[in-house]
Amino acid sequence: MADQSSLQTPGPPAPLTPPPAPKIGLTAELPPVEGEEDIVPPLQGEGGEVTDISQLSTAQLYQLNQEFLDSTVDPTRPLIDDAQPLAVLRAEYENGSPSFVQQIDWLEGKGFHAIRRTRGDGDCFYRSVAYLFVERLFFAPDPPLAVTQAASGLEATLQLLSRAGFEDIVVSGFYEPLEELIKNIIQPVDGQVLTLNGLLQGFQDPMTSNCIVTYLRMLTSAKIRTEPDDFAPFLIHPELGEMMDPRTFCEVNVDPTGKEADHVQMTALSQALGLNIDVAYLDGRSADGAVEFVQFRNAAEENELPMVLLYRPGHYDILIGK
C-alpha cells in the first residue's frame, strides 16, 4: 500500500485529446482488453486439440482475447446497436465454447432476454452507462419528475469537476450534449421531443456519443482525484504491479479515450452519478453455469433498479431483461 503522505496533490487534468491507446495488461478486478467477441474462435491447445476455456489461466485468457480482438475489431460497427435476442449471442458460442453457452442459458433462465452491443473501442463501459442513464428516464413512473431530477443531478456534477481542476470552458462542450438529450425527453426541440429511437440515433452519432463518453471519463477522473485517500490503495499499475498516485493513474488510465474501465473506474463513476450498476461476469469459468454479478450500489434510493451490463473478457455490452 502506498504511503498516503507521498501522494501528489491532484492538479489540473491532462489534455483530453490523447494519442491512440496502447495495450495494457491485467488489472486487479476484471480482466481488461476492450474489443469485439462476436465470433468466438476455437481454443487450440498443443497438438491442435480444443482446450476448455476453464483450464486457461487469466493471463492465457487475456492473450487469447487480445490476439483475437486485434484481428477482428470492426470499426464500422455502430457505437451502440439495436437490441438483439440473447439467443443470437448464444449461437456465436455454440461451436467451441460450451461453458459460455451454459452461462448464457443461466442468464436466460433468470429472465434476461436481450443484449444491446456497443463498439469495442475501449469506451464501451462509459458508453453503455451513459445510454442507460438516459434510457431509464423513459420508463420512470413519472418521466417529467425523473428528467428534472436527472438534469439537476447532472448539473451538480459540475462542482465535482471544478474541485478537480477542470476548466469550465473545457467541460461545457462535453457536458451539454448529455444535458440536452435528457431535457429533450420532455422539452421539445424544433417541435419534437426525444424518442427511444432518437436516443439511439444520438448515441450512434460520433460527435454526440463521444462527447458524452468524455464527460463520463472526466467525472470518473474527478472523483478519483478529489478523493485520493479512498482510491489510492487500489491504484496499481497494470503491467508493473506498482502503486500509482491518483493523478498519474487518471492521466494514464481514465482521461484518454480508448482506455478500458476496471473496478476502480466503475466504482468512481457509479459514485459520481449516484448509480446502481450490476455487471454480469460472463467468463466461461463457472463450474455450474452460474454467472457472477459484481454490484455497485450508490443510488440515493436504496431500491432503485440497477443498470445491468454484460462483461465478457475485454468488453461491456448492455444486458436487457428483468
UniProtKB/TrEMBL annotation:
Catalytic activity: Thiol-dependent hydrolysis of ester, thioester, amide, peptide and isopeptide bonds formed by the C-terminal Gly of ubiquitin (a 76-residue protein attached to proteins as an intracellular targeting signal)
Coiled coil regions in record: none
Xref: InterPro entries: OTU_dom (IPR003323), Papain-like_cys_pep_sf (IPR038765), Peptidase_C65_otubain (IPR019400), Peptidase_C65_otubain_sub1 (IPR042468), Peptidase_C65_otubain_sub2 (IPR042467)
PROSITE patterns in the cross-refs: OTU
Compositional bias annotation for Pro residues: 10-22
Chain intervals for the UniProt region annotation (Disordered): 1-48
GO CC annotation: nucleus
Protein EC: 3.4.19.12
Alphabetical keyword list: Hydrolase, Protease, Thiol protease, Ubl conjugation pathway
Broad EC category: hydrolase
Domain OTU positions: 113-322
Any one Gene Ontology BP term: protein K48-linked deubiquitination
Gene Ontology molecular function: any one: cysteine-type deubiquitinase activity
Record carries keyword Oxidoreductase: no
Domain of life: Eukaryota
Protein name: ubiquitinyl hydrolase 1
Organism: Schizophyllum amplum
